[in-house]
Amino acid sequence: MTNLVIQVSKYLIIILMALYTFQSYTVFHKKDDESREYLFLRQNMLMFFMHFVAFMVLFLEMSEPAILLFYGAQVIYLAAMLVLFRNLYPLASRLLINNMCMLICIGFIMITRLSYEQSLKQFKIAVFATIVALLVPVIIRKLRFITKMYWLYALVGIGLLALVAIAARSTYGAKLSFTVGGISIQPSEFVKIIYVFAIAGLLSHARDFKRIAVATVLAALHVLILVVSKDLGSALIFFITYLVVLFVSTKNPFYVLAGLLAGSGAAVGAYFLFNHIRVRVQAWQDPFRDYQGGGYQICQSLFAISAGGWFGTGLCQGSPDAIPFVEQDFMFSAIAEELGSIFGICLILVCMSCFIMFVNISMQLTNRFYRLVAVGLGTTYAVQVFLTIGGGIKLIPMTGVTLPLVSYGGSSMLSTLIMFSIVQGLYMLQRDEEVKAEQKRILQKQQEYERQMGGYPYSAGSSYNQQGYSRNDGAYGSDPYGSDAYGSDAYGSGPYGKDDYGRDAYGNDGYGRNDGSYDRYGYGGDGYDGAQDAYDPYGENGYSRRYPAGSGEYEDQAPQYGGSRYEYEDQAPQYDGSRYEYYQDDDGFDPGWDDSYR
After folding, report:
1. DSSP 8-state symbol, 404
2. pLDDT of residue 130
3. For the packed helices 331-339 and 296-308, what is the interaxial angle rounded to 10 degrees?
4. What is the Cα–Cα distance from 104 to 62, expressed in whole angstroms?
5. For residues 335 and 393, what is the distance between their CA atoms, to the nearest angstrom?
6. Contact 229/175 with Cβ under 8 angstroms?
7. Longest distance between any two alpha carbons in the chain, whole Å
8. 183: which DSSP letter?
9. How far apart are CA 504 and CA 556, in angstroms?
10. In angstroms, how far is the first alpha carbon of the chain from the final one?
11. Global pTM?
């Protein structure tokens, strides 16, 4: 029975992941907020269902009751994360939040499968990192001066990297991290954030070649220190990020071409200068030549991906732990082995969706500095994903970087969540500035009209009459185009006459003000002629009960033409040679043409 559940679950997990990934892209075609909101809720349901199926399998395989408690804690954490981001920051990108939670969810599943102890540590780090991430947008929106301290960021970044190169412990030939109080900290994960702020600040003010040269020198210092530390992966991330931000800032492809040539030359030089880099390149070229040495990791990674095939072996059915440092550097290979290549492709597409949202948000930012920061952080994320997956499938030499939000690593988890939150904060800051600018524009326009016309545009005393398009009640007036339909007396006392389209033309107040719509006797409570019973229809005695049959005219309630305008005389229209009159037949008053009409 357990084997049947495991076999069914691996297909179900793939289906759920494929549906989630599909909706990550169809959301861009949704036109209204309601459809998008419904899609985001479906994504959340798919994520929680996939999480449940995976942990059901883990519980059946491990037979540890603690797995159930751990599963419940993760559900609470993911639900709280969704609710808090949605309610604290309603302007934030929901797709970016959903993708962030999905990647964390996949990481929880795989790390728990590989090592329950490490998964507990990762969960604690994720909770702490989420709390920090929730504060980042507030800091970005409130402390705006931090966006202007790019010189300080450059100096701090260079100082931290230099400290790592001098005093950090060496791990397989590379100096990456410190250990403080039993906690390993990798400074380069956080330096890459302030590095983006530094180059964005320098290039956002670049108006000549001198400024660009200064930014290039500072970026080169970061990269060179990382190369000396033999942290090849981080050096590539910093280098490519700078080239992308440089191109977005200057729109000059010559700078990018020159940077690529310089980077290629530096890579060739590093190959001959550093044995650590040379070993990795040789292992990439032919990993089976040194199977027991430098090529062992890559060979095991390729074996794992091949064993998984399209649909995977199923959770806990493969041997991903045969790959050294699988939970950090080769997490994608473990996913491809047990969850299948289809699941792995969907994972890549979700990561691409995150990058697309980074770029989409950056395109909406009008502030030049904000735009460059969003582009830089998005590029940093995308390059890190590419280096991790590319190294695992032997597309490029292995660089030793983690898969963001999925691989085990506290520094990586914290820095990536901060990156996502910074972009969200910049996006919300842009929305705040747009709202304030619009309010300022409206206020200025209002003040200008009040000076010129003695009131707000379309208000009392302006060109749209006394109460039409007023600001008293609603957008266009109180009823709804002014208190009396098109104004107090329709178009005023001008060409259409005081009572033509106004008070007594189509009802007591325009089209009838009692119900504002179709009443049981016609077109509103006061109908067409302002009488109490209105359009009766045709009434007992013609057009209204109020006027008795046989009178031949409106006795008390009709305007009479006086040569230039309608005036209230005896309130009855009579033909004077220029217009038609009302005459009476046997059934009451009916409008008709006089025989003498000309």
Report:
1. T
2. 93
3. 20
4. 21
5. 12
6. yes
7. 117
8. E
9. 13
10. 98
11. 0.71
Would you state the pLDDT for residue 418? 93
Distance, in Å, from the CA atom of 194 to the CA atom of 204, rounded to the nearest integer, reads 15
| Structure-token match 């009443």, residue found | 519
Q: How is the beta sheet containing 169-171 ordered, strand by strand? A: 169-171, 174-180, 183-185
* Average pLDDT per consecutive 10 residues, the chain (598 residues; last block may be shorter): 80 94 88 85 94 92 87 95 88 89 94 91 93 88 74 87 77 66 77 91 79 88 86 88 91 87 84 80 83 83 91 88 87 93 95 92 84 92 93 85 89 91 83 74 81 56 42 42 41 42 40 41 40 41 40 44 44 47 44 42
What does the radius of gyration of the chain's CA atoms come to, in whole angstroms? 37
Which amino acid is located at 341 in the chain?
S
Quick one: pLDDT at residue 577?
A: 47
Q: Which one, of 283, 319, 315, lies nearest residue 391 by Cα?
A: 283
**Three-state secondary structure along 153-180?**
HHHHHHHHHHHHHHHCEEECCEEEEEEE
- Per-position b or e across 153-163, b if 16+ CB within 10 A of its CB: bbebbbebbee
DSSP string, 217-284: HHHHHHHHHHHHTT-HHHHHHHHHHHHHHHHHHH--HHHHHHHHHHHHHHHHHHHHH-HHHHHHHHHH
DSSP summary character for residue 589: E
Rounded CA gap, 169 and 231, in Å?
12
C-alpha distances in Å from residue 60, one per residue of 75, 111, 373: 18, 17, 46
Residue in 466, 587, 435, 429 with CA at minimum distance from that of residue 89: 429
Q: Answer whether 194's CB lies under 8 Å from 153's CB.
A: yes
Contact of 56 with 70, CB cutoff 8 Å: no
CA–CA separation, 91 vs 233, rounded Å?
Answer: 34
3 state SS of 548: coil
Q: Which two tokens stand for residue 528?
A: 């067409």
Pairing of strands 169-171, 174-180: antiparallel
CA–CA gap between residue 505 and residue 486 (Å, rounded): 12
Q: List the beta bridge partners of residue 583.
A: 590
Quote the tokens at residue 491.
Answer: 């178009």
Q: Counting every residue, how long is the chain?
A: 598
* CA dist., res. 224 & res. 304, Å (int): 35
Q: Tell me how far apart the alpha carbons of residues 155 and 172 are, in angstroms, rounded to a whole number.
A: 28
Q: How many angstroms separate the CA atoms of 509 and 523, rounded? A: 12
